[in-house]
Amino acid sequence: MCGVLIGSRADPDESDAVRDARPVPNVAADPRTHYELDPEATLAEIEAAEAAGDDVVGFYHSHPRGPPEPSDTDRRQATWPGYVYCIVVPGSDEDEEFVVRAWRWTGEAFESLTVEVVDD
Amino acid sequence: MDVTVEVVGEGEETLAVDDDATYAELARAAGYSPHEVSVLVDGTPVPEDGTVTAERVTLLRLIKGG
User: Fold this and answer.
1) Residue of B nearest to A55 (CA)
2) Rounded to whole angstroms, what are the CA distances from A4 to A21, A66, A95, B26?
3) Does A73 sit within 8 Å of B60, measured CB to CB?
4) What topology does CATH give the domain B2-61?
5) What is the DSSP-derived secondary structure letter of residue A43?
6) Could you give the percent of chain B with pLDDT greater than 70?
7) Where are the domains of chain B?
8) What is the pLDDT of residue A74?
9) Other C-beta atoms lying within 10 Å of the C-beta of residue A66
10) What is the average pLDDT across A45-52?
């Protein structure tokens, strides 16, 4: 799974807020091991968010296994400096259905971010 | 011809390209490899080897990995 994170982007020393995760089809040639957001659907989601006064905070994708950390492929192919790349992996037990971690692409590396769930 | 190029999330600029320029060449003129962007006209991707006919083009940096 993969998609666009919608919400509010903040100044670098403040927290971004994600209010919606919009799924986008994965059009990678081998979707079992790679992801690529469908460009047409991605652009439609971005334009809809901006029309509603929201920001694109970043993007999310899942890894079927392994730690919720960017892969070498993720590093090689990252193209949105300053934006959040969120990675979801299956949890390790029944109490943890999945694990979510977030990273900001600096243009050279992924910096780990703190993910906090806040009630409305 | 002059083409207005919007790079999603970055901004837009107007570039002068040859009349027979391709969308791949337009992407390069905007500073991007054709392999790292999708070129869209009116919200629909266009072939990178197609000749530029649109006066306004959107470049979407690809979001991909594995």
Assistant:
1) B9
2) 6, 22, 26, 26
3) no
4) Ubiquitin-like (UB roll) (3.10.20)
5) H
6) 100
7) 2-61
8) 94
9) 10
10) 97
